[in-house]
Amino acid sequence: MTVRQxxxxxxxxxxxxxxxxxxxxxxxxxxxxxxxxxGVGEPDFVTPWHIREACIYSLHQxxxxxxxxxxxxxxxxxxxxxxxxxxxxxxxGREILVTVGVSEALDLALRAIICPGDEVIIPTPCYVSYxxxxxMAGGVPxxxxxxxxxxxxxxxxxxxxxxxxxxxxxxxCFPNNPTGAVMDxxxxxxxxxxxxxxxxxxxxxxxxxxxxxxxxxxxxxxxxGMRDRTILLxxxxxAYAMTGWRLGYAAAHGDFIAAMTKIHQYTMLCAPxxxxxxxxxALRYGETAMRKMVEQYNRRxxxxxxxxxxxxxxxxxxxxxxxxxxxxxxxGLTAEEFAEQLLKEEKVAVIPGDVFGPGGEQCIRCSYASxxxxxxxxxxxxxxxxxxxxxx
Amino acid sequence: xxxxxxxxxxxxxxxxxxxxxxxxxDEAEVKAIIERLEADKTIIKYFTLxxxxxxxxxxxxxxxxxxxxxxxxxxFDAVAERIYRFPEVKTVHLMSGAYDLAxxxxxxxxxxxxxxxxxxxxxxxxxxxxxxxxxxxxxxQDGFIFEDRETDKRLVITP
Lengths: 392, 159
Fold this sequence. Notes:
The structure holds two protein chains of two kinds. Chain A contains 13 helices and twelve strands. By secondary structure, chain A is of the alpha/beta class.
């Protein structure tokens, strides 16, 4: 009789998924002291005080119970109002679902629509969980690499070329993590045309919508014909500096929300009430604090871009989120080698671009959600590192 | 212009070059704006906010409520000027409500501050009464929290 290893019991799909490349760097960087981290995908601000204070008050009031699976009605109302301002109307009772972060919303969306073998087109570089999430839902991720030359934007032509009879959905994320790329209305309209022609669905992760510095953010669902084809994902982590609260939401046609709610009610049940109470405060009164944070990111964005130019690190201009994605291909090092050596020699932590999929191999992700002082020092150290390895 | 003022108020050590980059302006333009703001006294002075207690320096600060009899033509201004000229006086505000001037006085000891109030402030003509409140601890000043216990709690690397 063959002796089975414990690992033989693990689902082969889960086994086949490599651990996040970010994890290895986390372990490396965590052991070192004095590291300036440009490797964080979250704001350096603490949640604005009035939101935290609202949370404390809600606890005083004894709000500690489950909420409806869909989320607190007051919160869904506020979310619907917010989305209406972005040009798309949703019924707060049937078409909005509050989730445990956008990560859960993404998982629910994929699991609700994907049948085994369905293909999901994912423009890359992209957030680390898109491909594993698709695989775990039984789907097949089809990556479409974008490049620095085209501003890391998806073109309608590239999308069209990737479509097969098995294509079910397109997964978008603009402003983008890790590149900071944004897409304007005209470009998205062309994408929407292809989506309609091929009868596709779109999962649009718009978590960075408020962090758009060049032009106005276009909500994909607000484009003609796209409302009922789109599962719109958003949350509170980035704009309101609420990453640890784990609160997101999905807005879509009632049939999609009903299907997602089924999975949600048998897994998460509901998002934590404390976070939901705080999110109501954020949407009602958080605009000023949020605008101030966004202003600061924008200033740091300029500082970092200027700094990279000074030290001779080519970087396309990110229009959103809080990441710069400079090109390190000229150094002769792989992104991983670059990041590892930079960390060891200059104590600056960045993320190698290849962990975000095809198109990111010769780049590194640098988050500018750090203080001006830290960013200035990090850029100096990176400049020194480039000189050391014989570049510039 | 407001953006430049805000940046400088938050960190007066920012160079015109840094401000230029951060605001997307030309460095010469930023320099010119700052010079103009300094010249017209929109920017009055560049301060360093010091936590003297931490530096081991004992200082006593008192907030003094001052009631005045306003004077014809000059209102409260003439008496206010007589008060704010004293180097011991750090801040003077004209207030609405129960008293007229809020005067912040700094001294080496409580006795020194008390003496100043009794011999200098209270004796000024048209000052009708004073009430002295000693500051026991400063938690926040000019928008800055003195002993901020909130540190960056993020992990070194996050998705």
